[in-house]
Design goal:
Elements lengths: L3 E6 L3 H13 L1 E6 L11 E4 L2 E4 L8 H10 L10 E3 L4 E4 L5 E4 L3 H9 L3 H23 L10 H14 L5 H6 L5 H6 L21 H8 L2 E3 L4 H13 L3 E3 L4 E7 L2 E7 L2 E4 L2 E4 L3 H8 L10 H5 L6 E9 L9 E4 L4 H11 L8 E4 L14 E9 L8 H19 L8 E7 L1 H8 L31 E3 L10 H19 L3 E2 L4 E2 L1
Length: 504
């Protein structure tokens, strides 16, 4: 085909994956990133020998990455070293008990039997019930194709009802597990993509099955090594990257994309793929004249995910009670979820995720130290919290909690302390209301009801990443890049390769 030009706005995992696909399809592709380095949410912090992944911290579908590199004619293993984790996580409950969550059915059943033998006996039934949902999303193309017509919705709905995929994740898990520990283990995963487990539809219940099938992995050198590998592949294919270059306007004429305006000037393009939040893209980059469907009223009705308060701690001490991934749960988990998602108040207690990558890669911290990443789910900016005032107080409360919980000497051994607040999400990452995962995955914001991969308003405008179909998380945004590439292949009559077929 005659070489055509494309622009990708934003270099998160979704943007990088889309850029690689476009360049491999024959488009002359330029990627613009507003920050100083590529990565978007998947940024990296270096301080005094400590290395921190600032965003995504685990890989749960390496097959998607292998395929992405393969369509670029590359071998993933030649660019980045992935290490499997076992256990996947350690989950500490409020009563002092814990479970090491693993893919091994025997080990899981043995741990579960300590608390409820019937639950342990239901483990295999649960996995069997979630397998068809996994197959629909990951193998049959539900997640990797645009879900943008009523016909597709009506075709899938009977099957979704039959599989129980429309009910909340929490309710689905309750059919199998009565003990609060087991119920949490198999229903909390929507939190990893910005969802409330008590209302996110059970299409997301497939994540435990995905983890058991493909494992949980870590990239040596940190997740940013994967960002660098993807950027390198894109450049090797002939792509161009401009960092520290925000796109200020998507130029549209007669309803069709003509290019983008940046501080460096105008860049012509046949198509634009935005890795920025769809609502932000429409409101700040596209003239209102061209937004008949996605006008300001419709965007205002969107429900955005919670945010996160993140601490990055360089500590000259190690804590053996922490695994690579550790969860610490509050005694009032369900009420805390309501505080965060519905009441939008900053609660007095915490449920936390801790990332301690030196368990797998000692190079992430000086010898004898920890580069700890502490994530506290908090309300987005609709809470009205002034984080310029609250951040140091909240950080102090978190440090006190962690010391009392068991990380003795944390303050005394602290060498590096940074934080990232909901305001930082809003300012540095252009996320509406400082949401950490874009649009919340609730039933009427899933699949057909999310902003589509192909714009409904502007010809030649597409979306990739957490805010479009299928949603947030590394597997979600990689699938969204595949879905968007599929739409572009159809619209521009080019060939592109999926995991199961070649599109014409």
């Amino acid at each position: 085909m005659k070489e055509q030009s494309a622009v990708v706005i934003g270099s998160g995992f979704g943007g990088l994956a889309a850029a690689i696909r476009l360049q491999a399809m024959g488009f002359k592709t330029i990627l613009f990133e507003q920050r100083a380095r590529v990565g978007g949410r998947a940024y990296q912090l270096l301080d005094r020998g400590y290395t921190f992944d600032m965003g995504p911290s685990l890989i749960t579908a390496p097959s998607l990455l292998k395929h992405l590199f393969a369509i670029a004619g590359r071998d993933l293993e030649a660019y980045v070293s992935l290490v499997p984790l076992d256990p996947f996580y350690r989950v500490y409950f409020h009563d002092g008990t814990y479970i090491d969550y693993t893919a091994d059915p025997e080990r899981m059943r043995a741990q579960m039997a300590r608390f409820n033998e019937k639950d342990a006996a239901h483990y295999d039934r649960f996995m069997k019930a979630t397998q068809p949902i996994y197959e629909a999303v990951m193998q049959e193309g539900l997640g990797a194709r645009p879900f943008d017509t009523v016909g597709k919705l009506l075709a899938f709905l009977p099957r979704a009802l039959r599989l129980g995929a429309v009910q909340p994740v929490s309710r689905f898990a309750r059919r199998f597990f009565k003990d609060f520990r087991h119920h949490f283990l198999y229903s909390f995963h929507p939190l990893f993509i910005g969802g409330n487990p008590f209302r996110a539809p059970a299409v997301y219940i497939m994540i435990p099955y995905l983890e058991r099938k493909e494992g949980v992995w870590f990239a040596l050198g940190g997740m940013y090594s994967l960002v660098e590998a993807m950027a390198r592949v894109f450049l090797e294919l002939g792509g161009i990257i401009h960092t520290a270059t925000p796109v200020t306007h998507i130029v549209v004429k007669n309803g069709r994309v003509k290019g983008v305006e940046t501080a460096k000037g105008f860049y012509e393009a046949k198509l634009v793929v935005s890795n920025a939040d769809p609502g932000f893209t429409y409101q700040h980059l596209v003239d209102a004249t061209y937004r008949r469907r996605w006008n300001d009223r419709r965007i205002a009705r969107l429900h955005y995910s919670m945010s996160c308060f993140l601490l990055y701690l360089g500590v000259r001490q190690t804590y053996p009670q922490l695994l690579h991934h550790t969860l610490i749960l509050s005694h009032r988990y369900r009420e805390l979820i309501r505080d965060i998602f519905d009441r939008k108040i900053l609660a007095a207690d915490f449920s936390l995720y801790l990332h301690a990558p030196t368990r797998t890669d000692p190079s992430m911290a000086p010898e004898g130290g920890e580069s700890l990443y502490v994530l506290a789910p908090v309300p987005n900016l609709l809470s009205g919290v002034n984080w310029k005032v609250e951040a140091p107080r909240y950080a102090d409360r978190l440090l006190s909690f962690l010391e009392n919980w068991g990380l003795e000497g944390l303050r005394a051994k602290l060498e590096v302390l940074h934080w990232f607040t909901p305001e930082d999400f809003a300012v540095q990452l252009s996320t509406p209301y400082g949401s950490a995962f874009s649009i919340e995955p609730r039933l009427l914001q899933t699949a057909y009801f999310r902003p589509h991969n192909r714009s409904e308003d502007v010809q030649g405008l597409y979306f990739v990443g957490a805010g479009t179909h299928p949603g947030a998380g590394l597997p979600g945004v990689l699938l969204s890049a595949e879905a968007t590439a599929y739409a572009i292949a159809q619209d521009y009559n080019v060939r592109a390769t999926s995991r199961t077929a070649t599109w014409a």
